[in-house]
Design brief:
This protein is an alpha+beta fold. Helix content is 21%, strand content 20%. The longest helix is centred in the C-terminal third of the chain and has 10 residues, at 52-61. The N and C termini lie far apart (40 Å).
Length: 80
């Protein structure tokens, strides 16, 4: 279980806060609801609210989180 900090929101809810995938210039910060939820909205509502332009902007800023397989097979990779 990751180490959590606490944050009390304006409505009085005490959220757990943790960090995942820290990098040199970014990280995923998660707010964990006391009853186990990790967001205030459902995934479906968030997805429905995104316009085509929103999705395009998110895609342009996206990056892979992890890959189960290498992008280039080791036999085809250059050593230098």
């Amino acid at each position: 279980m990751p180490k959590l900090r606490s944050y009390r929101s304006a409505d009085g809810t005490l959220w757990g806060v943790d960090v995942d995938l820290p990098g040199s210039s970014n990280a995923i910060v998660r707010f964990r609801h006391p009853n186990g939820r990790t967001a205030r909205l459902s995934r479906d509502k968030v997805l429905e609210s995104l316009s085509g332009d929103d999705i395009e902007q998110l895609f342009k800023r996206s990056m892979p989180i992890s890959r189960p397989d290498p992008l280039i097979p080791s036999s085809a990779a250059s050593n230098g």
